[in-house]
Amino acid sequence: MALLSIIVMVGGIIAFLTFGFTRAACVGVTRRLQPKDISTGYLVINGRAYNLDSSAHPGAAGIDAGTNILYPPVNAGGKDATFLFQNVNGNCKGLIKPKQSNIDNLKIPHDNDELAWYMPCKLFDLDGSTSPNFTYDYYYGYACHTSSSARDAFYSLDVSGDVYYKWDDISNSSRNLLVYNGYVLDMDLLDWIDKDEIEYPELFDQLKNDKAMHGHDISVLLTSPHEKQVANCLAETIKVGVIDVDTIGCIASDIVLYISYVFVLSIVFVKFFVACYFKWVIAPKQGASTTALRDMAARDKNIDKWSDDPKSTAPLTTVPEKRRANFHNSKHARTQSRYFGAKNRQSKNPEIFQELQDYSTTDYKPKYITMTTEAYMIANSQTNKRATKTLTRNSMFAGGANDLDNPFGDGNMNSNALTSTNSMKTLASDLIHSDAIPQPPVDWEPYGYPLVHTMCLVTCYSEDEAGIRTTLDSIATTDYPNSHKLIVIICDGMITGSGNDKSTPDVCLGLMTDFLVPKEEVQPYSYVSVAQGAKRHNMAKVYAGFYKYNDETVPIEKQQKIPVITIVKCGTPAELTTSKPGNRGKRDSQIILMSFLQKITFNDRMTELEFEMLKSIWSITGLMAQNYETLLMVDADTLVYPDCLTHMVAEFVKHPDIMGLCGETKISNKAQSWVTAIQVFEYYISHHLAKSFESVFGSVTCLPGCFSMYRIKTPKDLNVWVPIVSNADIVAKYSENVLDSLHKKNLLLLGEDRYLSSLICSR
């Protein structure tokens, strides 16, 4: 609740700054118009513009009733009518008064010092070009609007806005303009006063004739009471507009606006330039080898073509005949070695890895620490006398489960010492499948770095066979050696997708062959899921075998033999009649594997399901699960580029501090709908701007679940490993099943990928 309150409060503040701050701070400001914006639909009076486009004037001399004075015959549109509605006997009382020497001949109606008008009631142009005219058309005082009815009609008009002038208009103008308290005064309008009938203060002419004051603000010069009265009188009579100024509130609003604008733009530009730095400087050095920018651009074009047509443009590697999916070993695994070390590489089925004949582990000096190179370094160390249990299969065929030969040709090691992290017990060698893939020598580095064993997790829900096969084909045909990759498929319940004639588990099992145990004989095992209530108990089956290609989708010469583990969440007997037995969500599928890796890493007690997973991995690979260091996670509707594993694993090997990474995600059906077209832009910006920026600082906040790789454990030093995805704390937090708040539901139901990334970054 506290977090929601903070979110609401912050959102409210941002909404107020965006929509309400200007209205709250910049108050009392009316619309303003420049003189050049005054059209014939407006009439200006005392510096204010009135829209009289639809007005009608009552009948008067020379004007028919209902006439719009803006147009013929009056033609007042776009002109200044200040003299038609003069402010008299206000601030000017006692300053502008009848001329006493001509009081007997005075034509202007007056009462002592009060006058009916000061200037002839004439229209004049806004640019001040109209010359004074003291004649009247019909009678003396025509159009002066001195009656109370005329005044009331004027006061009832709605002001459209103030006429404003900029300082450049005032200072560079040929007109005699001054500024007082924000009002613009046209001193040349004083020429319209008939000096034969009216007298005014001498200060009027001083201000008018002093050229040093033209175009300046005289507010601070007029300080005495008399001077202020004079200035206020001028503002009532010859004001033509206001100066272009803002209130304190409006200035504050503008400052906040510009600060926000600069802040947002700075973030955008900083992210853009940092992303460019990543693209041009960091990215070429990533992966298996350094790449020139030109070559990167060409590769990007090839990937774009591949994303549009994966089947025809995928650069798949041709597989040697003895390593293809349809090759079956004629000898049983228990009678021959599957590991080719320095001494036995020639003698144990040499035809499978004939391309490795030039490799020798005798003088090999590993540059990076992996599970395999660490075992080699410890086994060949002259000072380390501790025994090292082999991580490979050659000794497992020669002895029992606890009597392992040295895989690197050194037979002088004590095989009973099990004190190091590399000393691991194994299962019985007779469990190993006869077609288990042999391991190459430790010094075989086809891409310039030691190979590490990788699990490829594919989570399935309701996808069809074509979608799942496409994903598995792309993973199986990656150019990363098949001896170092294992596909793990987890089916989230007994689900039959829309339009499918088979359930998802049946589809996945149909993509496997050479089962370790006939699929009809596989037994379900219980495990604790991440659900609540009765669904906390779930059951799953573990199937082990090899990937079954379709010759129509992948040519025979491109088919690698790939071991596959399929875990089917079948549900308890009580839920077999429900619509989705066994379904617990993608996060539950991930937890099954992560919890298993945690037990393996910490040598904890396993459930029956986890032990069955361990036994299945051992049986189809000849490797204990401890050997696997990286975990690729993809969705069942994702295709991966053939060299993705090679480059992603390279980064993990070369940089032990990397805990997770992701590749770029593209849309293959970008033209299918407007939604997919939007996703193209969204994915591109997300990867090339957001994630590239974060990657420079080593903290990508969200690795997408559709295509990411995590490190299971990382080497800190020789014989020292730190768990990452297999970390007990991460597994415990990620397996939270009590979702009693909206925040937890957002984390674990909608944004589990970001949550997992955050958990890993927090370690």
Automatic annotation (TrEMBL):
Known catalytic reactions: [(1->4)-N-acetyl-beta-D-glucosaminyl](n) + UDP-N-acetyl-alpha-D-glucosamine = [(1->4)-N-acetyl-beta-D-glucosaminyl](n+1) + UDP + H(+)
A Pfam family it matches: Chitin_synth_2
Cytochrome b5 heme-binding domain boundaries: 165-244
Predominant cellular place of this UniProt entry's protein: membrane
Single GO term (MF): chitin synthase activity
Regions crossing the membrane: 255-278
PANTHER family referenced in this protein's UniProt entry, alphabetically: CHITIN SYNTHASE (PTHR22914), CHITIN SYNTHASE 3 (PTHR22914:SF16)
Protein name: chitin synthase
Protein source organism: Candida boidinii
